Every structure is written in C-alpha cells, then in structure tokens.
Amino acid sequence: MADGKLYSKDVLLILTASFFYFSCPMLVTPIITGFSGSLGASAALMGLIGGMMNLCSLFCRPFAGNLADVVSKSRLSIAGTWMMAAACLGYMLALGPRAVAAFRVIHGIGFACCSVCMATWMSNLLPRDKIGSGMGLYGAMNALAMALAPALGIFTYRLFGYRAAFGVAMLSALVSSFVIMLIKKGGEPSKKERAAESRRSRGFSFIYPRVVPAALIIMLFAIPYCATQSFIVGYTEARGLHVSVGLFFPFYAAVLLVLRLCLKSLFDKLPFRVFQTGASLCTLAAIICLSLMQSDALLLLAAAFMAGSYGIMSSVCQSAAMLAAGPEHRGLANSTYYIGFDLGMMLGPVCGGLLFGHAPLSLFYPALALAVPLAAAVYMVSARRGMF
Q1: 380 compared with 187, residue with greater pLDDT
Q2: Residue 197 near residue 70, CB atoms below 8 Å
Q3: Dihedral of the CA atoms 342, 20, 179, 78 (nearest 10)?
C-alpha cells in the first residue's frame, strides 16, 4: 500500500483527520466531570465518568485491532467518528449523570476504532524506511490537538456553557469524518491482510506478542507523565508553591511539537535504545525539576524534559510496534501498543493518588522515578530475546 512518499496527499489527509478526531475527546475531557457534577453526580461518579471513556477504549482495542486488519479502515474510522459525534450530541441532550455515563461508553468505542484504524492506515501508507518519521508526524498532530483542544473546550464552556462546548467537539468529529471520506488509498485490507485473517480465523487474538515490550515501555513512561497531569495542581498547592501551573501542558505540547518535527529524520536512523536512553535521562531530569521547583523556570524546564521523555517515547514505541509487525498485522499491533498506552493513562493517576494520599510529599516524584529502571529492565530482557 505504501506509495514511497512521506507527504503524499492521502498522508496529509490522514494527519488532518487525526487532528480533528483526537481533538474531539480532548475538548470534552477537561469539562465532563464538572458537567456531570452540575447534573447531580457525586464526586465518585464524577471521577468514574471522567475515566470511563479510556476504560472502555482499553477493553475495545483488541476487537478494533482485529477488525482493522480485515475490514475497510475507512469505513471503521468513519463509524468511529460518527459514534464520537453521537456521544457529543448525547452530552448536549443529557438530563442526568447516568445518560452522560452511557454516552461516555459510546465515546470510548468510537475513540478505540479511530485511534487503532487511523494509526494503522497511516503506517500502511508509509514506506518501511519512513515509518519512524511518519509516525512522528502523526504523533505531532496528536500533540497539537492536546495543546489546543482542551483550551478551546474550556474557553467555549466559560463563554457559552457546557453544551456549546460539546457542540464544538461534535463538529470536530464530523470534520474528521468528512476528511476521511476524501482519502483514496489504503482503506481496504490487502490480500496479505485477508490471508492473515484466514489463518487466524480459528481463534481471536487479543495482542500481538512482539509488540508487548513496546507496550510495556510506553506504559511505564506514561505513569510519571499521567501522575503529573492529574496531581500537579494539588502537589503545588500542598507545597505552597506560587507557580503558573497552567503553563506546564501548553509548554509541554509546544516543545513536543518542535522536537518531533526536528527529530523526524532521526526516528528512522537511530536505534530504539538511543531514544530510550535519552528519554530516561529526560524523565529523571523532569522529576528532579519538579521535586526542586520554586519558580516558573523549573516548571517550564520540567515540561520540556517531560516532552523529551514520554512525548518522544510515545512515537518511538508506536513506530517500533509498526516495524515489529507486517502490514497484515498492524491493526492488532497498534491495538497492543494502545493497550499499554491506556494502562499508563490509568495507572498514572492511580499511582499518583496512592503516593499523594499515603506517602510524604517529598517522595511523590522520587517514587515515580522507579518507572525508568523498570522500563530499562523490560528493554534489556526483550533485546536479549531479539524483540528489538
């Protein structure tokens, strides 16, 4: 399916569609718990509703991965965007928290379909020697959505209310659906994909084994980032720090976008261990900055280092997953990668909550640093078995 070009028309359309589909949940995430609370949800239910989309996506990914290898990626992606749009419409019409929870499930199913299909489709359009740089650009679109969409969602909510913000999210999903319809290449499964499915037809595959190490590594790198995402406000307040916490994630996304664009050619040239070593050092540097911060300077420096750790490794691990599988298995390989991604997003807040609630504040970030040697151990064991 690959046409040998990194910037082909279809690749650019997939990048555009990925920005809009990823923006949809990012627009909703910062405000959905508050909206649920305004409808009468308890604090516990608010938290459950907030995490329900990712939890649902986690369980749906193996099914989406298997489907992505045997059915039209275009049709499955469009179905995913329509489900996300329907969920946003449901939020707009919801009169109680139970309805919101039900639509979060629909949102999660749609997001699982889009995330697996779009990444698989993108990788199949790239020549093998450009998968690293191409998936880096794909990740850059996600980073851009992470930077802009939450701010737009909060801005719209403050000006026009919750339901208007959900309307913007619905529009984002519909734009993604329209752009997907313009893509001409790569949506239908290849002969190799159909042959692989006929060989797998006797059993259902939940994971692609060769991708498990990459999934575990991105899970471990995600834990410090996601713990920071959930608790940096409470951490700074508990320490009595007067820093501009709101600058952390926009600066993180901006640095990550620059890094991915500047390093795009190196993604295809340098071995995995080089990126993991650099990302490990960046993780430790970010943790030191967050542990010692007293000013915005160290806060921003920590954000930059976090971009060089989790931000870069998310692209590197996804590229490794694509290279570990042939085109006929990339749907399942992508779903395996995203299972690790989802687990990291879930375990980060859980680990952060346990540390924040039961450990001395001074140990919050040093304890999270344990993810670095654990990721190194996964790599060393896997490399000895020839999996990298």
Answers
A1: 380
A2: yes
A3: 40
Q: Tell me: the pLDDT tens digits for 16-59?
A: 999 999 999 989 987 888 888 899 988 778 877 877 887 888 88
How is domain 209-384 classified at the CATH fold level?
Growth Hormone; Chain: A; (1.20.1250)
Measuring CA to CA, how many Å separate 133 from each of 137, 145, 267, 312? 6, 19, 5, 12
Tell me the average pLDDT of the chain: 85
Domain edges within the chain: 9-200, 209-384
**DSSP of 325-377:** S-GGGHHHHHHHHHHHHHHHHHHHHHHHHHHHHHS-GGGHHHHHTTHHHHHHH
Q: Using CA atoms, how far apart are residues 69 and 58, in angstroms rounded to an integer? A: 18
Q: 9-200: what fold?
A: Growth Hormone; Chain: A; (1.20.1250)
- Give residue 23's identity as a one-letter amino acid code: S
